[in-house]
Amino acid sequence: MLELRNLSYEVAEESQEKEIISHVDLRVDDGRFVVITGPNGGGKSTLARLIAGIAAPSGGSILLDGEDITALSITERAKRGIGYAFQQPVRFKGIEVYDLIRIATGNRRLTIEDACAYLSEVGLCAREYIHREVNASLSGGELKRIEIATVLSRGSRLAVFDEPEAGIDLWSFQNLIRVFEHLRERNSGGSIIVISHQERILSIADEIIVLADGHIQRQGPRNEILPTLLGTAAATPDCRAAREAMGE
Amino acid sequence: MIDEIQLRLLREIADLHGIPEGAYNIRANGEMAGRATTANIDIVTKTDKSGIDIRIQPGTKGESVHIPVVLSKTGLQETVYNDFYIGADSDVMIVAGCGIDNCGGQDSRHDGVHRFFVGPRARVKYVEKHYGQGTGTGKRILNPVTEVHMEEGSSMEMEMVQIRGVDSTVRTTTAELAADAHLVVRERLLTHGEQRAESVYVTLLNGAGASADVVSRSVARDHSYQKFDSRITGNAPCTGHTECDGIIMDSARILAVPQLEANDLDASLIHEAAIGRIAGEQIIKLETLGLTEEEAEEQIINGFLK
After folding, report:
1. Which residues from chain A sit within 8 angstroms of residue B288, using beta carbons?
2. Are B214 and B242 in contact (CB under 8 A)?
3. Rounded to whole angstroms, how far apart are CA atoms B204 and B211?
4. Local structure of B98: helix, strand or coil
5. Which among B14, B206, B43, B16 is positioned nearest to B126, based on CA atoms?
6. Rounded to whole angstroms, how far apart are CA atoms B99 and B105?
7. To the nearest 10°, the Cα dihedral for A46, A247, A212, A74?
8. Distance (Å, rounded) from C-alpha A86 to C-alpha A162?
């Protein structure tokens, strides 16, 4: 179980402190699939970074299974089972897809076959990708799915996905949705937090949180929240999102 | 004849766990420690100076030559001249390299001067590894000079590797290419401590259709210094590309000097150079996968230099 207590994050802007996250209280129970949505600039990605330990809060605390992890490093949180998928996956010269998955599993002797299984889960034809370098030769959609595979292969207790739909083409987007639907179906025990504007991702959530101006505006089961979002920017149908993703 | 230290050096520089297959010449502490020739590959000791001539018959295919050099005696300084005559239409692999173990207080130095005469349409894969070890205060110094003459339609792939342990290196490589000859150079370098490494590549594309791709990937740590100086001259319709990709860490320095000279309207030449620290987000990504910052750096460097 993840708990955020009175969590705040401030940045200095033109010699003034600006609150990006403001006194947020949130609880994510085990086994839940939670989607955080809301307008751009509302603090969603910052919240994800605070949970992963990439950013340090200016106030409040973060608890995982009752343990205060606020002061723990990224590495220590990862070892406690927090996974984090980047909105913009990182590229590496010389590091292969297999290397990343091997590192993610923590198993030095990971077989190619086992590594391939994780790629198949995200809809990639494993043999074609396993020895590819994680560099600019891969498309945005491919990198996204490899990014998700690295998080899946950790078997995280809590996995946070920061806008998985951002920056990919329509074809990749359709595949990506299926990956999350699949993930939703087979999830056992661990919790998943996805930051998304996507109607189809929102429609598989157990719970939806609307974050705007650093505050939680609304929060509740999908049935209650989703109808209030439809037709707004917080829940875009596929094609609009895809067009936006392609920068049109 | 070969002792434990020398065996370890051989493993590092030539992946040799024993006596290699095919033709070889092992030089240990300035003396010949083993040699084998084949029906197609002859190795002869030079009479006028220190070194060997390696003659590969035209049409020799799928054979290899190993010519490792190991130094385990402190204070040994030598210059060795090796000439390779590679016959037309052959396809061979040549593994060179030098390992120095210096436990003493005097400098150990090996300067290998290699000349390659690559015959028409011959294909050569050349691997050269440098490695140094030992706790002595004496320096480990390697100054390889490589001269490559490539005839029409020949191709050569050179892999030059120096990872750790060598205090001072000036590597000078010159190549001249006739028509339709192709040269690929892949240099990988890691320096640390107070080490200095300079690489100079001069590539002359003299024949129509010649091409060269000279790429260095390097990591400089601690207080080390590297200079990469690569010039491609196009004297005919040709294509050339040279690239330096460097990671700096700690207080290290890298100077990259890519140069192009086009003397023909149809010479198409490109250079690229990028130097910088490890991207912060790369470390963060690996930390989210459970690695510490140090482990993440190690993985990034290992991948980069792979």
Report:
1. 52, 54, 74, 78, 82-84
2. yes
3. 10
4. strand
5. B14
6. 17
7. -10
8. 6
Does any CB of chain B come closer than 8 Å to the CB of residue A92?
A: yes
pLDDT confidence tier of residue B105, bands split at 50, 70 and 90: confident
- Give the pair of three-digit tokens for residue A118: 């994780």
Cα of A231 to nearest chain B Cα, Å: 35
C-beta atoms of A94 and B292 within 8 A: no
Q: Are the Cβ atoms of A96 and B303 closer than 8 angstroms?
A: yes
Tokens of A97: 């897809």
**B277 touches A at CB < 8 Å:** no
Query: 10 Å Cβ neighbour count for B248?
Result: 18
Percent of chain A beyond pLDDT 90?
Answer: 59
Instruction: For each of the domains in chain A, give its residue range(s) and CATH number, in order of start.
Output: 2-88+156-245 (3.40.50.300)
Which residue in chain B is spatially nearest to A91 when comparing CA positions?
B282
Mean pLDDT for chain A? Answer: 88
Question: Does B293 reach chain A within 8 Å, measured CB to CB?
Answer: yes
Read off the pLDDT of residues B29-46 as tens digits, 9 standing for 90 and up. 988 889 999 999 999 999
Tell me the pTM. 0.85
Are A78 and B288 a contacting pair at CB < 8 A? yes
pLDDT in tens, A176-231: 888 888 877 776 678 999 999 888 889 989 999 999 999 999 999 999 999 998 87
Q: What is the ipTM of this complex?
A: 0.91
Q: How many residues does chain B have?
A: 306
| Model pLDDT, residue A140 | 84
Mutation pick from B289, B299, B302, B304 vs chain A, by most beta carbons of A within 10 Å, is: B289
